[in-house]
Amino acid sequence: MIRIGAAQINSIVGDLKGNCAKILCYTEKARAAGVDVVAFPELALTGYPPEDLLLKTGFIDDNLKRLQELAKEVRDITVIVGFVDRQKNYLFNAAAIIHGGRVQGVYHKQLLPNYGVFDEKRYFSAGTRPLTFRLNGVTFGVSICEDIWHKGGPTKLMAGSGAGLIFNINASPYHAGKSILREETVQEKVRESNLYICYANLIGGQDELVFDGQSFVMDKKGAIVSRAEAFKEDLLVVDIPVSELRRRMKKEGPVEGGSKINPISLLLKGTWKEKKPLPVRRTNILDPISEVYEALKLGLHDYVAKNGFKKTVIGLSGGIDSAIVAVLAADALGKENVNVVFMPSRYTSRESGEDASTLARNLGIELLEAPIDDVYRAYLSTLGAFFTGLKEDITEENIQARIRGNILMALSNKFGWLVLTTGNKSEMSVGYATLYGDMAGGFAVIKDVPKTLVYKLSLYRNTLGAVMPESILTKEPTAELKPDQKDRDNLPPYEDLDPILKNYVEENKDIGEINIQSMGKGEIEKVLRMVDISEYKRRQSPPGIKITPRAFGKDRRMPITNKYRGSQ
């Protein structure tokens, strides 16, 4: 019986010392559990993605130094860990195989993703040879993330060289539905090469990205043997019969380039230890809405904690967007680390004040109040000489939003609180947000959450404990910046708007490919134009948590100056 482990840890980008210590800690946990081989995530030593830290020679040197220090501490267990390798002037996204107190071999990632949030070709060179290692008569293969997402490739070559199990180490970012996609992809590889795959994934928040873990071991039939927790550090331990992994080496035919590439092969000596049977492991599998909620919690928690903040502040309007941000913050950080401020104006309804107060009370948070009408009158007085004879318009609306933004930023400066903005993806898409107003802040928690999903998340959260007042869930959306204002004055119903945005932003469809039965072509074109002309706003917005397949920012990089509006 071979006992393997997948250590899904929460690395911090650039914290080489801390990451090394955590790898050693989980190595010891694995050793104590009788594990023979344990795999850590992709670039676990540096954190992922290290981005332009990779251009710093000292960073690469330090990462290599830490790897050697780590290797000296590893005894009586084989460890696979992600790091950055350097050969001459080339960098590689690499996996080290550590055994017997030293690095026995290194695998270089062959398929470098360069789409969506990934920029690996900017930094890394591609590896050219698969790697297998033979431990006590059983052959294993090692690959890194993207290597397993394509037909054939290193997996097939390693299988042909006798590998009955592939350790695939990953830093695979979360988006809704990603875990299903991963498992389907790995199933294809299993069926193609008839082997086991140990999929070890990173967890944690890193700026806009969230890594969900959900590591797993899949058998030769494509069934999940065992799965790690979602959004939590975890050590997944699985026993596999040796007979299941032994296979005859077979000759592989020509590969791309016209010739067979023999894998690098390592011979490691050891003995399989006697082991007590593992306890039955039961893992809670999240439904789609609870999965998104946990992703937002983890992304928020790690952004705050990893950047040295403790307390946050939110402008609480009485609407659903600020309410869900406040609830997420309380859940992620603890209510003692959340401050909420209600900033009523002459247009704020009594109901909004009551809802904000009820929500704060339900969360156990003191509601601070800072009326803005006196400041607003001062603005109007100062600008009166310039605006004489002109009608009130969006200018006066934006002044109110900017006053609120200034108040929140003043509290942030004075007390060190991180301002959490409350705009959702629907609003950010069409520019229904005010620069230096409700967009002012340090982190945009629901920036990638469509409005219709905000409602679903709110209803879900209330099933765990009713903290959001029913009136917040049922009231018609409004910014309350002028008399009787409603979102529908400027936008289509969110039930129609969100599908258009999904088609255009996430699926990259053109106007001719978008068909919303309740809306005419002219209405759809108007929405698309609002998206296009709002790029300059989004460039100036704070980072936010990615939870959809295509978020604004790294995923979607459109030019601000852009005259293209479809087929010409």
Could you characterize what this model shows?
With 568 residues, this protein is of the alpha/beta class. The protein folds into two domains: 254 residues, Carbon-nitrogen hydrolase (Nitrilase/N-carbamoyl-D-aminoacid amidohydrolase, 4-Layer Sandwich); 201 residues, 3-Layer(aba) Sandwich (Rossmann fold). Helices cover 36% and strands 19% of the residues. A seven-stranded mixed β-sheet has the order 13-12-9-8-7-6-15, with helices on one face. Strands 5-4-3-2-1-14 form a six-stranded mixed β-sheet. Strands 18-17-16-19-20 form a five-stranded parallel β-sheet, with helices on both faces. Helix 1 runs parallel beside helix 2. The termini are far apart. About 2% of the residues have low confidence.
